[in-house]
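User: Hi! I'm working on a homework problem where we have to compare a predicted structure to a textbook description. Could you give me the structure for the chain below?
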Amino acid sequence: MTQDTDHLGRPVVVVTGMGAITSLGQGQADNWKALTSGASGIRRITRFPTDGMRVAIAGTVDFVPVADMSGPALAQRLAELVIEEAVTEAAIGRGGDFPGPLFVALPPIELEWTQRFALGAASGANESVSYDDLLRAAGKGGFESCYRRFLFGSVAEALADRFGTKGSPIATSTACASGGTAIQLGVEAIRRGETDAALVVGTDASVNAESVIRFSLLSALSTRNESPAAASRPFSKDREGFVMAEGAGALVLESLASARARGATVLGVIEGLGEAADGFHRTRSSPDGKPIIACMRHALADAGLGPEAVDYINAHGTGTPENDKMEWIGVSAVFGERAGSVPMSSNKSMIGHSLTAAGAIEVIFTVLTIRNGLLPPTINYETPDPALPVDCVPNVARAATVRHAISNSFGFGGQNVCLVIGAAA
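Assistant: Happy to help. Predicted structure tokens:
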């Protein structure tokens, strides 16, 4: 990395700070240690009653207090924790004065059942509760903060105020690709010369009864309630669904010139961006795999690399029969005869699927993979699927030299993002 511009004459964009929190723990160090040892953060849900529910497991962040805290409030708290870690490592923007814009990936902000019931009771209504009833109830009886939260969608605004980012914060929600989308937006802003630095965060705290039931009704979730740690089984023949999880990841992105000028440590390079949407179905991918294939090819072309340069793939790897099959179709088309020999492991086998936060968290883990020369495993891989001849780094981490890696994020609704990550030097 000797030039400040890339093969297309754009500013090289680098990572100078990262922060992570998942069901495995808080901070990069704890997460990396657990991830590479093959630990699982999946456990039985204790936050709310699960009696009668088909799914009773999730990758919850139980070590962060959640009493009397809504999903959006917890998502904001998780984001605050990872941003603090990232700006501290980058040594930029501390003290609430970050010198660039904020890009946030987060789920839709919705009233949860408990809040609806409480508002309904406060409204004085019986079987029928009108919108006007809820608005009146929200303005009294201690519901003011709830009203502000859902009136303004305040997570991004609150984060921007606390960390002093510049301009209007950008909040994005592109399903399971959201974290990747947020990184893409930050990289593009730097490449266009609009800013020298950007703060990017993906956060999600959607483990509540309604969300679990919704995904369960789609038959998307694993029902291995009696063995939570073994529930997420990407690429295995006996995979049956993903495990919902929560967490957050934050990255400080800078132009290489800016990072050099202030003597910052470069952790990794965001070399290429790929994006493709198909609109085929609300949950399924296009059967021909063309959008996934295009997404990876766009990212490699943007990075100025060929498939032969890729040493590792951080798979989307949800563990659903559909997703794993489509990801393999995409990888086999892009990498050809080499597809089965490119290591491709799934962090979700251990942390679960953190939805809108997943893309950001997995890019952080990809940077750590490159820096440490160690590939995280795909755990619970016991029954190979002959239709998916993937080198998923089964069950045990593996030492490897990685110069360039791909991180895939494929979301419901056909929203696909692929990022190419490179070594710092």
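For your comparison, note the following. The longest strand covers residues 13-22. Residues 114-151 form one domain. Good luck with the assignment!
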